[in-house]
């Protein structure tokens, strides 16, 4: 019993100190040991947690996820891995090519197999890209150097040979069967034929520096709806598209809805062929045309034309002929005249006679449009909308003489016409303004028409509104 009492009164026996207690007693040392042991203690279960979860997804699901991301992340996503690079390339639909080798080596069609819109114009022009000077034009952009030829910034030897361009078009056509829009330069009939044969869904085509005979290649584009032909561009390149080429495209592309002719030659016969064959044509644009006299009367053959645009034309028609032979376009709704020289009153009168049933008329930055010449616009008696911009010779008197004859006028916009002044507005004109559904009056930066017409009710009748200039 004595032994038992002594055992109870004595201190409890302590457990011998282990190496783990010795090392882990201090927290800093404990963390150090754990960090040292983690790599060696990893198990197969731990390794599964570090796997790329995106690798478990199928290509179809991952494509749907990537397609929801904004375009600004496309490049970043393609740098993640080779798989993402390939999948991201399948999502690209539109591309502007600058390196011809990328197409010729077939890397383009492998990386971007689902392209529907491609522009290879820049890649076909071999200029020094390290010049530091980039010249942008409406139709083409190039890098400039110190060399310059009388023919323009683009010399003949700067454009790739047609056989090389045709070879690239064949590669592109075989790899991008769903192509819908294509822009190119310097191609021949052979290259365009390969595109027409393979790309059955092609709907929009833009051709630069092509000839009449090369247009035979697009006759196989049965679904082509939009065609832009650029024959000559001052300062860049020069090629000839005449009545021969216009007739060829008219007979081959009968489903055209929109046609743009830039720097093209031709005459009455070419425009007539287009009107007779392309019966679905709704919009035609003539930019800096070189047409022979008398072409205006051929517009009467365009039985479905709704919009006519004239841009940067030095003259409308040098010899329109007698008024009784001009004919008219009864379906025409919009007439846009932009950056054209309108110093010949007879030419503008002939145009307006052809377009006498038009409802919207736009004059923008036209030279020579004074009161007398603008007065011919009263021929178009069904006008509902008039837009004037940059017509510095026109005055309030000239404006009044025309718009008072338009009984159906509903909308009027006057912008940057510095010779039209608020102080010359008559009470009759102010009353007309109050009846319009839309009025934008900004002839110059000093216009205060709102305050001068206070009390007339402008902008207070239903849907009518007024935009103050300044």
What secondary-structure arrangement, pairings included, does this model have?
Elements: H1 2-9, H2 19-24, H3 27-37, H4 44-49, H5 59-67, H6 74-78, H7 82-91, E1 94-96, H8 100-104, H9 107-111, E2 117-119, H10 121-124, E3 134-136, E4 141-143, H11 162-175, E5 181-185, H12 189-198, E6 204-208, E7 226-230, E8 232-233, E9 237-238, H13 243-252, E10 258-262, E11 265-266, H14 268-277, E12 283-287, E13 290-291, E14 307-311, E15 334-338, H15 345-354, E16 360-364, H16 371-374, E17 385-389, H17 396-403, E18 411-415, H18 427-435, E19 438-442, H19 449-452, E20 465-468
Parallel strand pairs: 1-2, 2-5, 5-6, 6-7, 7-10, 10-12, 11-13, 12-14, 14-15, 15-16, 16-17, 17-18, 18-19, 19-20
Antiparallel strand pairs: 3-4, 8-9
Helix pairs in contact: 5-7, 11-12, 13-14
Describe the 3D structure.
- The chain is of the alpha/beta class and 470 residues long.
- The chain has helices at residues 2-9, 19-24, 27-37, 44-49, 59-67, 74-78, 82-91, 100-104, 107-111, 121-124, 162-175, 189-198, 243-252, 268-277, 345-354, 371-374, 396-403, 427-435, 449-452, and strands spanning 94-96, 117-119, 134-136, 141-143, 181-185, 204-208, 226-230, 232-233, 237-238, 258-262, 265-266, 283-287, 290-291, 307-311, 334-338, 360-364, 385-389, 411-415, 438-442, 465-468.
- It is built from 19 helices and 20 strands.
- The strands form 4 sheets. It has a 14-stranded parallel β-sheet with strand order 1-2-5-6-7-10-12-14-15-16-17-18-19-20. A two-stranded antiparallel ribbon has the order 3-4.
- Helix 19 links the parallel strand 19 and strand 20 (465-468).
- It starts with a helix and ends with a strand.
- The model is unreliable at 1-10, 26-49 and 450-470 (pLDDT under 50).
């Amino acid at each position: 019993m004595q032994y038992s009492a002594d055992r109870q009164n004595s201190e409890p026996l302590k457990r011998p100190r282990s190496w783990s207690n010795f090392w882990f007693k201090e927290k800093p040392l404990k963390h150090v040991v754990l960090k040292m042991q983690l790599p060696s203690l990893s198990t197969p279960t731990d390794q599964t947690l570090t796997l790329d979860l995106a690798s478990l997804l199928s290509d179809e699901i991952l494509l749907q996820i990537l397609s929801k991301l904004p375009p600004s992340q496309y490049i970043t996503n393609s740098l993640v891995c080779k798989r993402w690079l390939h999948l991201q390339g399948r999502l690209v639909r539109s591309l502007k090519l600058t390196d011809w080798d990328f197409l010729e080596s077939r890397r383009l069609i492998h990386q971007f197999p689902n392209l529907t819109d491609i522009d290879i114009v820049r890649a076909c022009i071999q200029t020094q890209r390290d010049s530091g000077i980039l010249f942008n034009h409406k139709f083409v952009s190039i890098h400039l150097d110190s060399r310059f030829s009388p023919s323009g910034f683009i010399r003949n030897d700067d454009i790739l040979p047609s056989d090389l361009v045709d070879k690239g078009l064949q590669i592109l056509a075989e790899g991008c069967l769903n192509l819908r829009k294509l822009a190119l330069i310097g191609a021949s009939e052979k290259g365009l034929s390969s595109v027409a044969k393979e790309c059955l869904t092609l709907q929009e085509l833009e051709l630069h520096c092509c000839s009449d005979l090369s247009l035979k290649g697009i006759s196989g584009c049965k679904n082509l709806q939009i065609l832009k032909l650029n024959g000559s561009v001052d300062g860049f390149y020069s090629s000839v598209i005449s009545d021969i080429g216009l007739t060829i495209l008219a007979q081959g592309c009968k489903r055209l809805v929109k046609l743009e002719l830039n720097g093209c030659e031709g005459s009455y016969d070419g425009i007539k062929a287009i009107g007779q064959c392309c019966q679905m044509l709704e919009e035609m644009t003539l930019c800096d045309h070189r047409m022979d006299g008398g072409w205006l009367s051929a517009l009467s053959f365009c039985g479905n034309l709704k919009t006519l645009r004239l841009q940067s034309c030095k003259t409308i028609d040098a010899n329109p002929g007698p008024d009784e032979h001009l004919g008219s376009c009864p379906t025409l709704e919009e007439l846009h005249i932009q950056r054209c020289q309108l110093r010949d009153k007879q030419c503008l009168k002939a145009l307006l006679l052809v377009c006498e049933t038009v409802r919207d008329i736009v004059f923008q930055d036209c030279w020579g449009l004074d009161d007398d010449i603008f007065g011919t616009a009263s021929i178009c008696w069904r006008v509902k909308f008039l837009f004037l911009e940059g017509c510095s010779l026109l005055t309030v008197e000239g404006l009044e003489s025309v718009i008072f004859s338009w009984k159906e006028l509903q909308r009027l916009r006057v912008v940057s016409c510095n010779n039209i002044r608020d102080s010359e507005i008559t009470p009759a004109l102010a009353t007309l303004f109050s009846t319009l559904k839309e009025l934008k009056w900004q002839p110059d930066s000093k216009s205060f028409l709102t305050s001068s017409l206070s009390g007339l009710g402008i902008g207070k009748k239903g849907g009518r509104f007024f935009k103050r200039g300044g």
